[in-house]
Design a protein that fits this description.
heterodimer; A: alpha/beta; about 30% helix; globular; B: mainly alpha; two-stranded antiparallel ribbon
């Protein structure tokens, strides 16, 4: 097998976050190369570097010893690298044929676009994938699966020799996947190199021959799949020791703070129920895009689910609540929400620390009530949370990620919140601040609060939480006690489709 | 077929937007004016009507190119004024006409550069340009006056084979606009860039390998050139330069484009819609003039129709 392209010692960081760290990857002709790793392991970033979307900070890309520069998607395409990204990027106001040929439209006389040629070629390309869509249909009229297929058809071009398929099957059913696999095998026989990113184990073992595992932006191993089993592959993806940064769990479990019953995210999703007690930290785990984020956001009143009931302490609320007062209603019941994107959704970056803390207190007062200063509250919060700052009047933007997160938590600790819903409690936070935040959360529950956590970091779920609920396909497929859980069985549950999952389905 | 018909009637799932409704209003207005007013359906009045509509049609085509990208060009009014002022300076046409073209390319380039490179919002970028260009126009010609090249006056007001020349210019301008917007790769890329912008994915078109920044700058240059063409037409009609003649066209062109079903968020619209919109506005003022309606009331009615037509668009966002 000869090498088509080689990425050497690639590193890429976004702000403080080292997304890809010194990774070397070689793609060979006639090979389907699986790229695996947990969410946030750096797979997508690495592929975006190959596709010309991101530029590496360090490292080089070369073919046959010659360095190539891929500074834009167009250059990468000209070089013969084609990408089907996870997120759909078709233009809804153009037809299927126009999307397929966008940027390289065939011309006929007088510079007119050759629509007929475009449409006949599109029809042929779609037919090869088993689709009978009319090429002159606007993409806005297609279903998600149809769009996904058009995207794949767009990516599979004859004059390309490296294909990147980033979770191409997320929206497809089994028959569609079979059709796609047939194509991948054909391209492999033609001597092309395919990078295949997927969380579905059966697909990986079905069509791939080589696997590269990434973890925390680093290259773990590259192996031939014939030497691997699903279990050994998962072990490789997880492979690390629990670090000693989590506080002791407490056994104290009090009254039920939050109870969700008959909750359905959409009309077709399976109902789910969950409880959070006083003194407890409960986690939602699962692979990206299984609906966990929407479930959490439904509970705080920001997302509109299909239906269900939520019981916060003694108040029963039936969902969906009215779209524009859901958040007020929930926060009036003592529900605090710490969003994943604290810079855009959580904090007022340009305002001082003091204002960011007291805004939670102010929001419970009347709109025309004189604003109290809350000097003691601010001083207490800064002290008890060990926020490192020169003054309470310093802007939040000047703080480090860990201290920003503490300010956001401090806002809720200062006001009378007894149930905290947190997305990614330690995103972009260094290891020392992580341990402090874990301790603060545990303190909060020991003082009678309850916490519902959503996190991509499995290790965090196991170390920090009491119970872990694994979400797959918009419902809870498995519940486990965190003390007994391992990264392996969480990933196993998250990867399994509903049928062979343990727990409540 | 019924689905297609429904799409046309509602403007839904069509890239042209809702253009049938303003067309119906134009037809109703045309018929009722022909019936009610004796003077309306005369060839004299019809060529007058088209002459009135012509500058707006020209400038609206340019405006539409920018709006399809999700932008807006408020400097077109001043560009028109500047064109008439430049054409009326005391110099031969071989000097003034290239001067106008250079000025338009410069204005368009600075607009586009401000939007894509300096990241200024299109409204602010072109609003600033409007003041700058208006200042220059007034510096060149503080009050209306001067004279423009004689052939320009002939071209606009004359006849050819006994037919008013406006019937020759209209199809030519429309053909240029159609070629740019619906008959070229450039036009398709305009829709692609605007569609991405309307969806909140600014770099969607870029990821297809389209050089979006260059296309946007070219769009603002096109808009300024169309404005200059409209200015030349106006200068020929009034046979002089006037620093205030263009002012109303900035917002009138946006109105005509919006009435024609083009979405201001970008990516949806059609040339025929814009023509209908411009025609509707000319018809309104012509008909209301014939009916001796107060000029102040005419403005109010224009606003009312704009609000009504845009409110009736079933699709506020693309893909819904």
């Amino acid at each position: 097998m000869n090498s088509l392209i080689k990425l050497t010692n690639i590193s890429k960081s976004f702000g403080n976050n080292q997304a890809v760290d010194d990774v070397t990857l070689e793609l060979n002709s006639g090979s389907v190369h699986a790229l695996m790793g947990e969410n946030g392991a750096g797979k997508s970033t690495l592929m975006k570097i190959l596709a010309g979307v991101h530029q590496p900070d360090v490292g080089s890309i070369s073919r046959a010893g010659e360095v190539v520069s891929l500074t834009s998607p167009k250059l990468a395409l000209d070089f013969g690298i084609s990408t089907v990204f996870q997120e759909l990027s078709l233009l809804p106001n153009l037809t299927i044929a126009e999307n397929m040929f966008l940027g390289r439209e065939p011309k006929r006389s007088f510079g007119m676009i050759d629509t007929k040629l475009m449409e006949s070629q599109t029809k042929a390309a779609l037919a090869e994938l088993g689709l009978t869509l009319n090429p002159s249909t606007l993409v806005s009229e297609l279903t998600i699966a149809e769009r996904q297929f058009v995207e794949i058809a767009h990516g599979i071009k004859a004059d390309v020799n490296i294909f990147i398929l980033d979770e191409p099957t997320a929206a497809l059913n089994a028959a569609d996947v079979g059709m796609l696999n047939k194509h991948i095998r054909r391209m492999k026989d033609e001597g092309k190199a395919i990078v295949y990113i997927s969380h579905r184990m059966d697909e990986i073992f079905d069509i791939c021959d080589t696997v590269t595992v990434m973890k925390d932006g680093q290259h773990v191993a590259t192996k031939s799949l014939s030497d691997m089993t699903p279990d050994s592959l998962i072990a490789m993806m997880v492979g690390r020791e629990l670090e000693d940064l989590f506080p002791e769990r407490s056994d104290a479990q009090g009254a039920c703070l939050l109870e969700v019953k008959h909750f359905k995210l959409t009309s077709v999703s399976q109902p789910l129920s969950l409880k959070v007690h006083k003194g407890e930290i409960v986690a939602l785990a699962g692979l990206e895009g299984q609906g966990q984020r929407e479930i959490v956001r439904s509970l705080i009143g920001q997302h509109i689910p299909f239906g269900g009931t939520v019981r916060v302490k003694d108040h029963e609320i039936s969902l969906p609540v009215a779209a524009n007062n859901g958040i007020r209603q929930m926060s009036a019941l003592g529900l605090g929400f710490v969003p994943e994107d604290r810079k855009d959704e959580g904090l007022f970056l340009n305002l001082p620390i003091a204002d960011n803390i007291t805004i939670g207190l102010h929001s419970t007062e009347g709109g025309l009530a004189p604003a109290r200063k809350y000097r003691e509250v601010i001083a207490d919060t800064i002290k008890s949370m060990a926020i490192k700052t020169s003054s309470a009047n310093a802007s939040v933007a000047s703080l480090s990620g860990g201290n920003q997160q503490k300010v956001l938590l401090g806002r809720y600790f200062a006001s009378d919140v007894d149930l905290l819903v947190i997305e990614e409690p330690t995103r972009g936070v260094d290891i020392g601040a992580k341990a402090e935040i874990y301790k603060l959360l545990r303190q909060f529950t020991e003082n009678g609060g309850g916490v519902l956590v959503l996190s991509r970091e499995t290790i965090e779920l196991i170390g920090l939480c009491d119970r872990i609920l694994v979400i797959h396909d918009q419902t809870i497929v498995s519940e486990m006690v965190a003390a007994d859980a391992t990264e392996h069985n969480i990933l196993d549950a998250a990867l399994s489709s509903g049928s062979d999952a343990t727990g409540s389905v | 077929m019924t689905a297609t018909l429904k799409n046309i009637l509602t403007g839904k799932n069509s890239r042209q937007g809702l253009w049938i409704l303003p067309l119906i209003i134009v037809v109703i207005g045309f018929v009722s004016l022909s019936v009610s007013t004796e003077d309306f359906a005369t060839s004299q009045n019809l060529s007058n009507l088209l002459k009135q509509a012509m500058p707006l049609i020209i400038v609206a085509i340019g405006q539409m190119i920018v709006i399809l990208l999700g932008g807006m060009d408020l400097s077109v009014g001043s560009m028109i004024s500047l064109t008439t002022a430049l054409l009326a300076i005391d110099a031969p046409a071989v000097v003034t006409i290239p001067l106008v073209v250079v000025a338009a390319v410069m204005v368009g380039f600075i607009n586009g550069f401000s939007v894509v490179r300096l990241n200024v919002h299109p409204i602010i970028a072109t609003l600033s340009m409007q003041f700058i260009v208006l200042g220059v126009a007034k510096l060149i010609r503080p009050v209306a006056g001067g004279s423009v090249p004689e052939f320009l006056v002939q071209w606009v007001n004359g006849t050819i084979f006994g037919v008013s020349t406006v019937f020759l210019w209209t199809p030519i301008v429309i053909l240029i606009g159609w070629k740019l917007i619906h008959g070229s790769r450039y036009g398709l890329h305009l829709f692609a860039i605007g569609g991405g912008a309307a969806e909140g994915q600014e770099d969607a078109a870029h990821n297809f390998g389209i050089s979006d920044r260059r296309n946007i700058i070219v769009a603002y240059i096109c808009s300024a050139l169309f404005a200059a063409l409209a200015g030349a037409f106006l200068a020929g009609r009034i046979a002089s330069g006037d620093p205030n003649v263009g002012t109303i066209f900035a917002l009138d062109s946006v109105t005509a484009v919006a009435i024609g079903g083009t979405q201001l968020s970008g990516g949806i619209g059609g040339l025929h819609g814009t023509l209908i919109g411009a025609l509707l506005m000319a018809l309104l003022s012509n008909g209301m003039n014939l009916a001796n309606l107060s000029a102040f009331l005419q403005g109010s009615i224009k606003g009312g129709i704009l609000l009504l037509v845009v409110a009736l668009q079933s699709r506020k966002k693309m893909g819904l």
